Backbone:
């Protein structure tokens, strides 16, 4: 167990180091290749850890400051999946920009180091047992990724970056306030100062925590991390940032960074549930529903493809949040949905990114006939969007079904009705957008690049994964989700 | 059961094979169609096995998602619906192979066949799914696949719109089903149908309502029918045939299934069905009358026929709740037979429409005319379909309507109390529907196939190829056959009826079935007499004319000197008296450019009859929602200060509300 | 409730087949008599049919086999319908529960083919007639079926033979306001289906105002004979529907029953039609639907009274 | 000692008022510097028996970062951009002061209501921190210049820091330092972002950054 804990250090150090190594290469192509290799290398210890956790239980290290249980292991898997996909996607994504000389070595270096830095930061969030360090990791992701948005400095990108930076910083500041309040709630606890913010400690002594302070803290946490997770009405930065960032970056934003923020909230859910059974549920359901409805409104009226996808992220984060508020079954569903959404949304951004390059715009009114132009990317976008709006047999349908079921089981009928109404509106709206994008006469004479093998593998693989998860859940996944859900909401039982 | 699953696997696998080989259209077509045919033929084996022996085949496999198992079961009810699924699929696939020849230069047919096979497999799985989750997934596959089939001509914005309407309607319907199954599953602790226990449900009527809306939107109950008139004209004809002939019946299957799952219905439910049925039937046929797009017309007729089926179910349900096996046999039996019959003649009609469209390049009835001379087979089979759908003897349409009539006549005769009023209403409704349908199909057949071509294009029309003719011929033969064998077919429905009545009339149902079958047998005798008489008359006239000189001339023109083909009666004018009668419902818009001056050169009249429900209900609803939601857009103006204010306000509200 | 066959059941069919044209002759004779003329001989329709049968045929080039099939199916359907139509208390050749539905649909079959045969000519006049015919019959069908349902309720039998058996054996005891309404409704249907005044005028010469006649303008020779014979037959069997309600004859002696029935079948409709055609003019086309809806309302009223 | 704490608190409150009422960016930055130094001292003043090393470390870190590095960074940005004043905020300076006053009263009220597990001596820090948070948020929502927003953020951060100092003994030093470091990086990046805005738009009026909406 002790040895396994070292792996955490290895992951963190290696990915930081890779970020540094990116700076020594002399051509963008090399850097991109290195990134692919690097991410794969990082995957090895991560997966080892996850497997270890699965078979031998939670792993901790550094005096319990690092800790990996099923919940974090699950998120680590999702994270690595999204990162691997995005990195490999990035390998060809920049082809055109490299040829045009826009994606220079300097930019590539910056891109590479920030990429690994954000990987590190997110890993830090997931592996820390100390709620303070978790916060530090979360804030770091904000800061690191800010420059990824603004990779090619231009007006809108700067604007997006600024909004992202300020809004998320404010949110994260609240989250810190919340962290402090939670720490304060443990004032009766006679522990060593180093242990006071340890989640494992707090979870064990739930009864002695001061309820009022803990609840106040949770509200701060929810609003704070919720800002980062894109819950309405704190989601305002999200469409801007997603639409301006390069596609691989949007993919990790949507595919994982939002989930990381929610992961933080999950940790606090298990704390606050110790003092009040329903306190978190009510708030989460409320936020979930609100988020779904508001995002639905924007999806309906959206004209920008990437913003559309961004609002879909908002919606799905809302769905996950809703699930988190619906008891153990809901949490299970929410976690499952996390995985599905991450894969699906990354795929969506991949395809949108390439289509954007092909058409030279993200304005959906000017994109049509993408299926004719590129069966891979057009079809991939269609597939991912159809999956996103919840069509069976894709996995997102299954997880949404689980959420509805959870709502029925907990008798949260009003939430279920609103959820279904909201998702129907999203369905109607999004479908209206998808159809003309996919079909019709191509609106550009841009010659489509030949799709590379990695691209094909990515798109088809992601779709196949979504399809598989929609029809069959491997026992391993079921077990891991179950355990993770138990960690978040097991106290209800 | 394994055989059945094998057939589904064959169908799906051949679909994938078609997708993979999409670069070669002939190969992928061969694989796709071959797979459907082979798979369906194999699938028919267990189907008939179950239906004949009244047994059940089932299979449980462990499955995580299902809160239960991967549970598939062919019981009599499923097998009854599987027959059209497989049977019509084979015919439409063969037809499709010929139909799509035309597009092999421009389209990737492999993709089409992939989704076609998926649709067939999806329908088969829906019919056997014994688990709520499996049912929902199959249902969604079955609903999603046609979306890609409907949008075969995806470059046309009209088709895109049709695809959108279709998918939205079907998905919104599916949401109700989702809640329906989950609610039952949550109440009974398992999603397997055999664990469902109606006595434990709290909201039976709510469940019933969910089922009606969910399945009704697939079947095309008014007012959930709006997708039908959009999707069918857009789709290739074999797809319309399969959708209209079989897929919408899966909604009916679902209704039957939910009856089984929900237990003994309350009286009100029966009335709901009868009410919906009457409205759908009458409004459906009325709207059909006003259409002059051939397939749109047929689509509305699907609505009408679904209405008839629903009336039958309603009568049966009343019988169930009143413990009256006669009504059950007549109503449910009639409904079941009509399912089968409608799947035959409606696919036949759609295939015919497809041939017509193929040949003349249009679906606009007003532009056609005289096609019978150029397309004798298509014309004849279409006539058979038209007569069958009007319920004319000696074809199958009459048999099922006859049973439903009988049920309602029985009800009107022997039942007491104020509630009986529904029965005469059914009789009147059915009679009216029959009369209007006759108008509609004399119009459709008469204007399209008879007279002379109204446009020059009509002159060059050619009969369609063999692979298209054969399915139509088979279907029309089946229409006649089912008309003559009504009694026997009804008898095979005995296990199905026992199932939907939850075995409550185990003794009475066979008895009543025999009675009903006997009167059907008498009908058959009359049919035989009719056929005999007709044959006799044919020979009689032949004999009369054999010694005479038979001349050909022009049509008597009532003294007018230069009649042209443009002067023929048009479809719109043919139905004008009736559409005038129903003008308040139809709200037909006339676009007239009246004659001017002494020698008017150009005069025109165009009529448009959009769907009232769409125009008056759905569009305003969607627009209203959109407007309200667009109102929310102001929250995102781009002002970062405002954004921060949102965060702060949220926080403060939460603190005040939650913490204080 | 089995189908039953009996030797005496032949008589309604036989009499229908042979006597139907006579009905036309009687009507024409009565009309002429009422207007103070001397009518054609009663057997004139038979002479006409004979003449037509021996003629050769002229077919329009526009037409197809549908045009030729029209008269055949029209006649065939009505001949078949005659098989299930009883004559008073003499049951029909075939009878079974719900046979009146089949009866109505057999009429519809004949009409369907007549209409498409008319459309086959491509003539706008025939199209117009077809349109009207289709429209009016769609409205008359509910009235007919509802009226018969009321009778079924009244008599407790749901086959035509059964109904009329009860009606005639129950004599006038069963006559009630409801039955009067039924009678009126069926009478209107009778007039409509047979294209008589006030719905249609069989003797008009203006194509624009015709309904039934204009549809068969292009038929000649044996085809026209079939049509005319079919029309006569139709009038006969629809007449039976009416007669059955008001004919209470139940002597118990079979040949007497038959004779009286035949006499009444011939004279009843003929007198009624003759009187109406003598005293009324054709309704304006726009009024016809109102008449038919009124028939429907009568049936509904009858049913309501029966269901009470 | 209590008097010292009270003095600090009063000074800090006053500094917030200066932030609210001043239009000159340079003045604001200087005030921030002073605020940072005061906050750096604050933990030391709080009477604690243990953890001297811990407290000292954090105090020194805060002092350096908040009192010296931040102002230096901000001045650097200010010089690069070459503007001096915040022009016409959404809420004028005098009303800002009144609102600040109202905020102060609210903070005091909430602070008195809060049942907070802190020593009597530092109870007043909580209203102060709340007031700082409110002031920071007020600045963030009403000021138009990017730099002013950064400063608003810093005031907010300071407020939270002040709050943290009360529960400081509960938070491990590495966390505290990590937090400080993050704040540092945040300001650094915000500074760069401000610079980018200036370069792309030729101004730093963030209220004119509204291309992305809907």
Residues:
């Amino acid at each position: 167990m002790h040895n396994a804990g070292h792996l955490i250090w290895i992951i963190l150090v290696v990915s930081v180091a890779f970020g540094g190594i990116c700076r020594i290469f002399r051509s963008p192509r090399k850097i991109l290749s290195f990134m692919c290799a690097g991410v794969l290398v990082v995957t090895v210890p991560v997966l080892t850890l996850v497997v270890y956790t699965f078979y031998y239980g939670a792993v901790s290290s550094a005096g319990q400051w690092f800790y990996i249980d099923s919940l974090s292991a699950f998120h680590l898997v999702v994270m690595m999946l999204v990162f691997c996909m995005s990195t490999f996607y990035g390998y060809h994504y920049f082809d055109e920009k490299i040829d045009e000389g826009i994606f220079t070595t300097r930019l590539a270096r910056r891109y590479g180091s920030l990429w690994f830095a954000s990987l590190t930061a997110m890993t830090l969030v997931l592996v820390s047992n100390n709620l303070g360090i978790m916060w530090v990791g979360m804030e770091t992701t904000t800061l690191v990724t800010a420059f990824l948005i603004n990779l090619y400095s231009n007006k809108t990108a700067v604007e997006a970056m600024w909004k992202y930076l300020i809004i998320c910083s404010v949110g994260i500041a609240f989250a810190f306030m919340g962290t402090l309040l939670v720490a304060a709630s443990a004032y009766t606890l006679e522990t060593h100062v180093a242990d006071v913010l340890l989640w494992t400690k707090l979870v064990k002594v739930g009864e002695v925590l001061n309820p009022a302070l803990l609840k106040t803290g949770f509200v701060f946490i929810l609003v704070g991390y919720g800002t980062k997770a894109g819950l309405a009405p704190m989601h305002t930065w999200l469409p801007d940032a997603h639409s301006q960032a390069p596609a691989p970056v949007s993919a990790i934003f949507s595919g994982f960074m939002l989930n990381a923020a929610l992961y933080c909230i999950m940790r606090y859910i298990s704390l606050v549930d110790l003092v009040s059974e329903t306190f978190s549920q009510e708030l989460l359901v409320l936020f979930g529903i609100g988020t779904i409805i508001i995002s639905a409104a924007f999806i309906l009226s959206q004209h920008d493809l990437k913003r559309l996808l961004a609002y879909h992220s908002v919606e799905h984060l809302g769905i996950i949040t809703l699930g988190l508020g619906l008891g153990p079954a809901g949490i299970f569903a929410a976690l499952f949905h996390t995985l599905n959404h991450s894969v699906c949304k990354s795929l969506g951004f991949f395809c949108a990114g390439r289509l954007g390059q092909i058409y030279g715009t993200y304005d959906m009114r000017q994109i049509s006939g993408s299926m004719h132009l590129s069966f891979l990317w057009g079809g991939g976008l269609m597939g991912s969007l159809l999956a996103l709006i919840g069509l069976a047999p894709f996995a997102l349908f299954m997880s949404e079904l689980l959420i509805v079921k959870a709502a029925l089981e907990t008798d949260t009928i009003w939430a279920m009705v609103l959820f279904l109404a909201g998702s129907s509106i999203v369905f109607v709206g999004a479908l209206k957008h998808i159809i003309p994008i996919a079909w019709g006469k191509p609106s550009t004479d841009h010659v489509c690049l030949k799709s590379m093998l990695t691209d094909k593998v990515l798109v088809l693989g992601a779709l196949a994964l979504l399809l598989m998860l929609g029809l069959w859940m491997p026992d391993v996944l079921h077990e891991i989700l179950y355990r993770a859900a138990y960690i978040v909401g097991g106290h209800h039982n | 059961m394994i055989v059945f699953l094998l057939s589904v696997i064959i169908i799906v696998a051949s679909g994938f094979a078609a997708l993979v080989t999409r670069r070669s259209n002939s190969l992928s077509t061969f694989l796709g169609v071959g797979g459907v045919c082979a798979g369906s033929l194999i699938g028919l084996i267990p189907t008939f096995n179950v239906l004949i022996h009244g047994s059940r085949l089932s299979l449980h496999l462990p499955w995580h998602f299902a809160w239960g198992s991967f549970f598939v079961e062919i019981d009599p009810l499923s097998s009854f619906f599987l027959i059209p699924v497989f049977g019509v699929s084979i015919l439409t696939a063969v037809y499709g192979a010929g139909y799509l020849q035309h597009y092999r230069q421009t389209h990737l047919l492999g993709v089409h066949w992939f989704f076609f096979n998926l649709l067939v497999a999806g329908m088969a799985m829906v019919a056997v799914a014994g688990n709520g989750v499996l049912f929902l997934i199959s249902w969604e596959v079955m609903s999603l696949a046609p979306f890609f089939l409907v949008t075969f001509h995806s470059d046309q914005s009209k088709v895109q719109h049709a695809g959108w309407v279709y998918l939205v309607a079907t998905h919104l319907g599916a949401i109700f089903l989702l809640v329906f199954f989950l609610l039952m599953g949550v109440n009974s602790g398992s999603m397997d149908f055999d664990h469902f226990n109606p006595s434990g449900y709290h909201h039976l009527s709510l469940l019933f309502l969910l089922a009606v809306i969910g399945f009704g939107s697939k079947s095309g109950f008014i007012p959930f029918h709006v997708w039908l008139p959009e999707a069918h004209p857009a789709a290739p004809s074999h797809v319309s045939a399969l959708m209209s002939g079989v897929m919408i019946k899966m909604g009916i299957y679902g209704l039957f299934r939910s009856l089984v799952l929900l237990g003994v219905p309350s009286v009100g439910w029966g009335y709901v069905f009868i009410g919906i049925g009457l409205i759908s039937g009458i409004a459906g046929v009325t709207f059909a009358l006003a259409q002059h797009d051939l397939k749109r017309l047929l689509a509305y007729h699907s609505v009408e026929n679904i209405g008839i089926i629903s009336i039958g179910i309603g009568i049966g349900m009343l019988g169930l709740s009143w413990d009256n096996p006669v009504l059950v046999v007549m109503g449910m039996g009639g409904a079941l037979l009509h399912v089968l019959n409608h799947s035959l003649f409606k696919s036949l009609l759609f295939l015919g429409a497809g041939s017509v469209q193929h040949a003349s390049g249009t679906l606009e009835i007003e532009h056609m005319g005289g096609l019978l001379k150029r397309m004798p087979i298509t014309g004849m089979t279409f006539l058979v379909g038209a007569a069958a759908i009007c319920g004319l003897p000696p074809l199958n349409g009459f048999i099922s309507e006859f049973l439903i009539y009988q049920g309602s006549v029985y009800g009107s005769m022997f039942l007491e109390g104020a509630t009986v009023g529904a029965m005469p209403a059914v009789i009147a409704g059915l009679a009216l529907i029959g009369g209007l349908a006759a108008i509609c199909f004399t119009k459709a057949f008469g204007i399209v196939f008879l007279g002379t071509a109204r446009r020059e294009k009509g002159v060059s029309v050619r009969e369609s190829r063999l692979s298209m003719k054969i399915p139509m011929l088979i279907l029309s033969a089946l229409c006649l056959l089912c008309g003559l064998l009504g009694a026997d077919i009804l008898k095979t429905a005995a296990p199905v009826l026992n199932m939907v009545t939850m075995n409550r009339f185990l003794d009475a149902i066979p008895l009543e079935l025999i009675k009903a079958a006997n009167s059907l047998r008498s009908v058959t005798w009359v049919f035989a007499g009719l056929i005999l008489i007709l044959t006799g008359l044919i020979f009689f006239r032949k004999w009369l004319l054999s010694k005479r000189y038979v001349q050909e001339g022009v049509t008597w023109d009532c003294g007018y000197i230069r009649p042209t083909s443009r002067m023929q009666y048009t479809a719109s004018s043919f139905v004008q008296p009736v559409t005038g009668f129903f003008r308040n419902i139809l709200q037909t818009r006339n676009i007239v450019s009246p004659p001017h001056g002494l020698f008017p050169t150009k005069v025109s009249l165009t009529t448009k009859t959009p769907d009232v429900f769409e125009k008056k209900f759905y569009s305003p609803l969607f627009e209203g929602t959109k407007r309200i939601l667009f109102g929310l857009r102001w929250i995102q103006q781009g002002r970062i200060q405002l954004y921060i204010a949102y965060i702060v306000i949220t926080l403060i509200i939460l603190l005040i509300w939650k913490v204080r | 409730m089995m189908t039953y066959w009996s030797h005496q059941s032949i008589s309604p069919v036989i009499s229908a087949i042979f006597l139907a044209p006579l009905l036309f002759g009687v009507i024409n004779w009565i009309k002429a008599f009422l207007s103070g003329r001397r009518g054609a001989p009663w057997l004139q329709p038979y002479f006409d049919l004979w003449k037509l049968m021996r003629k050769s045929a002229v077919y329009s080039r526009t037409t197809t086999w549908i045009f030729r099939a029209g008269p055949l199916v029209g006649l065939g359907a009505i001949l078949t319908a005659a098989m299930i139509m009883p004559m008073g208390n003499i049951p029909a050749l075939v009878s079974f529960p719900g046979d009146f539905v089949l009866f109505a649909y057999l009429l519809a079959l004949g009409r369907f083919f007549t209409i498409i045969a008319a459309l086959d000519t491509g003539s706008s006049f025939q199209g117009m007639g077809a349109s009207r015919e289709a429209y009016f019959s769609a409205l008359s069908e509910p009235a007919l079926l509802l009226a018969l349902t009321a009778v079924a309720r009244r008599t407790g039998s749901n086959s035509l033979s059964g109904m009329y058996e009860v009606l005639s054996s129950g004599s006038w005891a069963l006559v009630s306001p409801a039955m009067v309404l039924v009678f009126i409704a069926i009478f209107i249907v009778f007039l409509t289906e047979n294209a008589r005044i006030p719905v249609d005028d069989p003797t008009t010469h203006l194509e624009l105002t015709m309904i039934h006649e204009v549809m068969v303008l292009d038929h000649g020779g044996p085809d026209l004979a079939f049509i005319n014979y079919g029309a006569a037959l139709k009038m006969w069997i629809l007449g039976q529907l009416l007669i059955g309600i008001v004919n209470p004859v139940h002597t118990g002696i079979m040949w007497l029953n038959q004779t009286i029935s035949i006499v009444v079948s011939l004279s009843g409709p003929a007198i009624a039609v003759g009187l109406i055609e003598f005293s009324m003019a054709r309704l304006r086309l726009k009024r016809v639907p109102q008449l038919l809806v009124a028939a429907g309302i009568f049936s509904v009223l009858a049913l309501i009274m029966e269901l009470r | 000692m209590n008097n010292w704490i009270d003095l600090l608190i009063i000074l800090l409150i006053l500094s917030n008022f200066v932030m609210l009422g001043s239009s000159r960016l340079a003045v604001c930055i200087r005030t921030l510097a002073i605020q940072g130094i005061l906050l750096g001292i604050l933990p030391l003043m709080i009477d604690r028996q243990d953890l001297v090393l811990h407290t000292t470390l954090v105090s020194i870190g805060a002092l350096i970062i908040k009192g010296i590095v931040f102002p230096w960074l901000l001045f650097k940005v200010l010089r690069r951009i070459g503007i001096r004043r915040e022009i016409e905020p959404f809420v004028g300076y005098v009303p800002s002061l009144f609102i600040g006053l109202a905020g102060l009263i609210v903070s005091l009220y909430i602070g008195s209501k809060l049942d907070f597990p802190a020593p009597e001596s530092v109870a007043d820090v909580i209203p102060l921190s709340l007031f700082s948070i409110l002031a920071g948020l007020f600045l963030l929502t009403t000021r138009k210049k990017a730099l002013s927003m950064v400063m608003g953020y810093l005031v907010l951060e300071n407020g939270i820091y002040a709050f943290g100092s009360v529960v400081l003994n509960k938070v491990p030093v590495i966390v505290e330092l990590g937090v400080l470091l993050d704040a540092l990086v945040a300001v650094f990046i915000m500074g760069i972002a401000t610079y980018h805005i200036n370069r792309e738009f030729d101004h730093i009026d963030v209220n004119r950054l509204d291309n992305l909406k809907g």
Summary: Chain B touches chain A through 48 residues (CB under 8 Å).
